[in-house]
Design brief:
two-stranded antiparallel ribbon; about 120 residues; about 20% helix
Length: about 120
């Protein structure tokens, strides 16, 4: 693999700190990038992704799909020779976990007139 086929990528997380830069092949998928982010997530952060499904990558204002390759994500006119591409990381915790943890109140509600609403 030639040096031209490799891309340096930094991942910027919610607090402005970076993970990386790491060097990837142009044929690497976004899913591979997400796996690296989850495995190398900095210790001590309040929001931590549990799986790649909780991670969204944004490059050039677009959310990247898991099957896209790094080569397709490059923006040729915005690159600085020798510089790293910066991708923004958004963590979205699973909704199913949030729904199961929410307490459900099934007690009848009272209106202003004292009537119960079922």
């Amino acid at each position: 693999m030639s040096e031209e086929d490799l891309v340096d990528i930094k991942f910027r997380i919610y607090d402005g700190s970076d993970i990386g830069p790491f060097r990837y092949s142009a044929t690497s998928t976004v899913n591979i990038l997400k796996q690296r982010i989850v495995s190398d997530w900095p210790k001590g952060k309040t929001l931590v992704p549990k799986s790649v499904n909780e991670v969204k990558l944004i490059s050039s204002g677009k959310i990247l799909e898991n099957n896209r390759t790094v080569g397709l994500c490059k923006v040729p006119f915005g690159e600085v020779p020798g510089g790293a591409i910066i991708m923004h990381v958004v963590v979205q915790p699973s909704l199913t976990k949030a729904k199961t943890e929410k307490k459900i109140d099934d007690s009848p509600k009272k209106t202003a007139c004292g009537c119960s609403i079922l």
